[in-house]
Design goal:
This protein is α+β, with helices and mostly antiparallel strands and about 400 residues long. The protein folds into 2 domains: about 1-205, 2-Layer Sandwich (Ribosomal Protein S5, domain 2); about 205-385, GHMP kinase, C-terminal domain (Alpha-Beta Plaits). The chain is built from 11 helices and 12 strands. It has helices at about 1-15, 95-110, 135-150, 155-170, 180-185, 225-245, 255-260, 270-295, 300-315, 320-335, 360-375, and strands at about 20-35, 45-60, 65-70, 75-80, 115-125, 190-195, 200-205, 210-220, 335-345, 350-355, 380-385, 390. Strands 1, 2, 3, 4, 5, 6, 7 and 12 form an 8-stranded mixed sheet that branches. Strand 9 and strand 10 form a beta hairpin. The protein starts with a helix and ends with a strand. Bound molecules: alpha-D-galactopyranose. The site of alpha-D-galactopyranose has 11 residues, from helix 5.
Length: about 400
């Protein structure tokens, strides 16, 4: 890591003619279980991974912000500190929306830097793989900005809300709190259990003999963001119908499967499928937390809940794709796989598998070649491990 940091500092110095005064790191995340339950105010389990994003900063003397990334070939992007507006999503430098969005929210919260700054980014998170490079970039940017200007976030939740609001209000993605919360609260050997209604996170110990593998399909639907927004709207529509008989519910996850049962007839077929997925998924997360809190890791039982989650996404929430289904089908037949499911928003992205330690590189290589034969795409399976949450370096 130290050699890497030295290399990054020298890249930054060449790019911005000054050594970085602040550096912050934030990891990517996997959604372990709890698909689209977050904005339905339910429970979700996530894990940090041992890859992430580094943000480096120095103050400037003018009112401009300069942004550059080691991974991109284009020159420094420059924008004015005041009047920040998001770049269109299809801009080749739309990644700048994440740090700029965070800055805009911080300014709204009374944290306006007197002058501009330069910001340089490095990442070892494969882009577009559903490992939440966006939340990592938001969180590392907020930490670095806080440090550079002496702005204090009241607590980790205030830091989380800054990135989350940037994503919703600046980037325009109506997401829940999963990504930013995991990135901030994650820890080695733990899953982060989030109660999205209470906005409370806690670590649940998850030790034992298993590996996590991420198989990125390397293919996502062009309309991924609008599909996500559609699902969000369908869930809110179903919730509004159910409120006519259960006025006390804030989100779909306020209903247990048993409490939902007598009201199913109120929903039209699509809304019924969406609500059933969310309410049953929330119950699966609760069951997994119960199993984990019992102590010993119950890989088989938890793995089977992961497979159930995927089938529910595939048939009820309809946010899976042929590629994701192929990977899960193949993993389900493979030796040494406890469970597998699409992780994150869906409509492309990656599958997370929980495997035995023996599965290893050889097991992953078999899945890779099967997927290459099926899709024509070569992918690099990643073994990931839970690690520390976001921090200043
Ligand atoms: C994306 C969003 C999260 C969550 C998941 C689906 O990752 O950013 O807030 O909704 O999809 O569970």
């Amino acid at each position: 890591m130290n050699a890497k940091l030295e290399e990054l500092k020298s890249w930054y110095e060449t790019t911005f003619q000054a050594a970085p005064s602040v550096m912050a790191w934030a990891p990517g995340r996997v959604e372990f279980l709890g698909n689209h339950t977050d904005y339905n105010l339910g429970m979700v389990l996530g894990s940090t991974i041992d890859r992430g994003i580094i943000v480096m900063m120095t103050p400037r003397k003018d009112q401009m912000i300069g942004l550059a990334s080691t991974g991109k070939d284009h020159p420094i992007v420059e924008v004015e500190l005041d009047g920040l507006e998001p770049l269109p999503g299809d801009s080749p430098v739309s990644w700048v929306n994440y740090p700029l969005g965070v800055l805009k929210i911080m300014i709204q919260n009374g944290m306006r830097p007197q002058k501009g700054f330069n910001i340089g980014i490095w990442s070892d998170l494969p882009e577009g793989s559903g490992l939440s490079s966006s939340a990592a970039l938001e969180t590392a940017s907020a930490l670095a900005l806080g440090k550079l200007y002496g702005f204090v976030f009241e607590d980790k939740y205030a830091l989380m809300r800054t990135g989350w609001r940037a994503e919703r209000e600046f980037v325009g993605m109506p997401c829940g709190i999963l990504d930013q919360t995991v990135v901030i609260f994650g820890d080695a050997d733990h899953l982060v259990s989030i109660d999205c209604k209470a906005e409370l996170a806690k670590g649940v110990r998850f030790q034992g003999d298993y590996q996590f593998w991420v198989f990125n399909t390397a293919h996502k639907h062009a309309l991924i963001d609008s599909f996500y927004a559609d699902r969000n709207a369908e869930c809110m529509g179903a919730r509004d119908v159910l409120r006519t008989v259960e006025p006390g519910i804030a989100g779909l996850c306020d209903l247990s499967p048993a409490a939902f049962e007598p009201h199913k007839g109120l929903l039209e077929p699509v809304a019924l499928k969406r609500a059933t997925h969310i309410i049953e998924e929330n119950a699966r997360v609760r069951e997994t937390i119960r199993l984990l809190e019992k102590g010993a890791v119950q890989q088989e039982a938890i793995g089977s809940l992961l497979f159930q989650s995927h089938r529910s996404s595939q048939h009820l929430f309809e946010n899976s794709t042929e590629d994701l289904d192929f990977l899960v089908d193949t993993l389900e037949r493979a030796e040494g796989v406890y469970g597998a499911r699409l992780t994150g928003g869906g409509f492309g992205g990656a599958v997370l598998a929980m495997t035995t330690p023996e599965f290893g590189e050889a097991g992953a290589a078999k899945i890779r070649s099967a997927y290459a034969a099926f899709s024509g795409r070569q992918i690099e399976p990643l073994m990931v491990k839970a690690g520390p949450g976001a921090k200043l370096l």
